[in-house]
Write a structure and sequence with these properties.
By secondary structure, the chain is α/β, with parallel strands linked by helices. The protein contains 13 helices and 15 strands. It has helices spanning about 15-20, 45-55, 65-80, 95-105, 125-130, 150-160, 180-190, 220, 250-260, 270-280, 285-305, 335-345, 370-385; strands at about 30-35, 90-95, 115, 135, 140-145, 145-150, 165, 195-200, 225-230, 240-245, 310-315, 320-325, 345, 350, 360-365. A seven-stranded mixed beta sheet has the order 2-10-9-8-7-3-4, with helices on both faces. Strands 11-12-15-14 form a four-stranded antiparallel beta sheet, with helices on one face. The protein has a two-stranded parallel ribbon with strand order 1-13. Helix 4 packs parallel to helix 5.
């Protein structure tokens, strides 16, 4: 079956966070938004059919996952990552960020330390600071165009924290951690009694092989909370459904207790239907999407190299979010924002929001039709030509 990713419906006027709230977020109304990490593509036909079936039933009471849901989840992760999931390990939450916050609350006390690796997805810092915990930073090092882990610093910091929030694949820098890197971090966490909470929501967008942390070794799996969702893979973020995998029964009970404390119970009926359909039947759609996104990456790479060499693409190993180095332009963060939003009429995510090491960078979402990217980069080139 063919899929036309060159087409995307007009999202304006639909309550889209990406398209309808520029003025509310102090941006010009006419900016082209390539910031928040959802895609512009309609969901796979099989997902839409499952949701339409649920809609046609007409009753939207409390719902729970049926056995087919867990079977689809288990089959997907077994086939794609070699990970056999027991249904009893699965806890559903209304999003991975919620799961990160629950884990921080369940396994630390106010004042305890939590380790992150900036520049990193900004809610990591938020769920720590908003819960009165202390942020410890193991800053990634950019070396010859590739981000690396400072393991000496990691080992020093890991002795001062209770939880490590791992981003794998890493958002925004696009690194897909090698198994030896993951193993080394996990072993240091085991040695110092630190729990790993691994956000692997972008696992289906690793452009080569991705290693799920719990697959490394049984003792590592017993010290891991694995956060997954079909939200990024199948563009279902608005349905608020995530699957948190916790093999260790003690950890699972503590996590559920904290989840119960906020009064949360079931995922909505559409989230359940869409997630099950995605993992049951979404493979061909995803394969076509991955090919299209790789084409988008190639387009951006070529355009920057030939038209805007002052902007450097950090070569992505995963995700549909590209990390662009603007430092050679000589603009500071404030000047970059003014230039991008007022001159180029583009809304990107400024690197500083991901932590101090992100200063001078911008994150751009390429989960859109090629024509949208062509317009965006055309605007960028035209704005630079007027400098």
């Amino acid at each position: 079956m063919g899929y036309d990713f060159n087409f995307a419906p007009d999202r304006r006027g639909t309550g889209s966070l990406k398209y309808d709230f520029a003025l509310a977020r102090q941006r010009p109304e006419d900016v082209l938004p390539l910031w928040v990490a959802d895609m512009d593509f309609p969901a796979a036909p099989e997902i839409l059919h499952a949701m339409q079936t649920a809609l046609s039933h007409g009753v939207f009471g409390y719902s729970e996952a049926m056995p087919g849901y867990y079977a689809a989840l288990a089959r997907w992760f077994e086939e794609h990552f070699g990970y056999a999931i027991d249904p009893g390990w699965v806890i559903k939450t209304p999003g991975v960020v919620v799961a990160l916050a629950i884990a921080v609350k369940a396994f630390t006390k106010p004042g305890d330390g939590v380790l992150i690796q900036p520049p990193v997805y900004y809610p990591f810092r938020m769920v720590i600071e908003d819960n009165s915990r202390q942020v410890f930073e193991n800053n990634l090092i950019l070396k010859n165009g590739v981000y690396e882990i400072d393991f000496d610093d990691f080992e020093r910091k890991i002795q001062r924290v209770k939880v490590f929030l791992l981003c794998s694949p890493h958002n925004p820098v696009g690194r897909v951690w090698r198994s030896d890197e993951l193993r080394r971090m996990a072993e240091l966490c085991l040695r110092h009694g630190v729990l790993v909470v691994s956000d692997e929501i972008h696992c289906d967008f690793a452009w080569h092989a991705h290693t799920l942390l719990p697959t490394l070794r049984r003792d590592i799996a017993q010290n891991t909370i694995l956060c997954t969702s079909a939200a990024k893979t199948f563009n279902l973020a608005g349905l608020q459904a995530s699957n948190i995998i916790i093999e260790n029964e003690r950890l699972r009970r503590a996590f559920v207790k904290e989840l119960d404390a906020i009064g949360y119970s079931q995922v909505g009926v559409f989230g359940l239907a869409a997630t099950q359909a995605a993992y049951e039947s979404g493979g061909p759609w995803l394969a076509a999407l991955r090919e299209y996104l790789l084409g988008n990456i190639a387009y951006v790479r070529s355009f920057l190299q030939t038209q805007l060499p002052q902007i450097l693409l950090i070569e992505p190993q995963g995700t549909f979010l590209l990390w662009l180095d603007f430092r050679a332009t000589g603009m500071d963060a404030s000047a970059q924002r003014t230039f991008l939003e007022q001159k180029a009429k583009l809304w990107l995510d400024p690197g500083r929001m991901f932590g101090a090491p992100g200063e001078g960078f911008q994150r751009i979402n390429i989960g859109c039709p090629r024509g949208t990217l062509e317009r965006a980069l055309g605007r960028l080139k035209a704005a630079f030509d007027l400098l």
